[in-house]
Amino acid sequence: MDVLNKLAPKHGWLDLAVITGLLLVVNSMFAATDIGWTKLHPTPWLLVPILMGCRYGFPAGMAGAAVAIIVVSVGFARHADFFIVTLLKVHGYLFAAMAAAGGICGQIQRGFKAQEILLKAQAERTGERLKKLDTDLFPRAMSCGRTFCCCSTARPASVTPPFTPSPTQARPSCAKASSATPGRSGRACS
Fold first, then answer.
1. Which of 56, 78, 86, 163 could join 12 in a cystine, given CB atoms 3.0 to 4.6 angstroms apart?
2. Taking the C-alpha atoms of 55, 35, 43 and 52 in order, what is their torsion angle to the nearest 10 degrees?
3. In whole angstroms, what is the distance from residue 148 CA to residue 142 CA?
């Protein structure tokens, strides 16, 4: 999974090209005369910045918005002789919505990514603490002088879990100790 996340930015441009190509093919199949789905509201070209922002973050979301704006602008320009200024005055909200969709989805992805990083760090710290606890408990379990002591769950390094003693091996029995020694659980191996 980590390998895919490290490679993700490299595949962002490929995904942008694939999504754009798929939308162009579907657009030409269903509405060949309306490139950019300019008569359809909301336009399916909003999917490009949303998908790119959600998967790859803010820069990819803005790149998706730029591609979507270009395709929709070409569609509007084919219907009438629009200059860029007129196009922005008439359809400025649509272009702003595309840019906002890419940016907002990118920031949401960033928040989830930050939370994922924090959870991974917490899992690593917990794993380190568990290893330290295991190494601290193992010498105490071996203090009775036996290879395997039933008083602890720790096992010697030579025993691989799951340890199942053979029928001929008898496990030592644990008896309640009369006084608990510091650092021990109150049981003594006999």
1. 56
2. 10
3. 7
Q: Residue 174 — φ and ψ, nearest 5°?
A: -100, 135
Amino acid at 160: T
pLDDT by residue for the chain (190 residues), tens digit each?
A: 455 455 455 678 888 899 999 999 999 899 888 888 888 778 889 999 999 999 888 999 999 999 998 888 888 877 776 677 777 777 888 888 999 999 999 999 988 888 899 999 999 999 999 998 888 877 665 555 555 555 555 555 555 555 555 555 544 544 444 444 444 444 545 4
pTM value is 0.57
**C-alpha pair distances (Å), 54 with each of 31, 48, 58, 65, 169:** 27, 10, 8, 12, 59
Specify the residue for token string 């879990």: 161
Length of the chain: 190
The 3-state DSSP composition of the chain as helix, strand, coil percent (nearest 5) reads 65, 5, 30
Which residue in the block uniquely carries the two structure tokens 């490929």? 14
Tokens in use for 166?
């053979």
Spacing of C-alpha 146 from chain mean position: 46
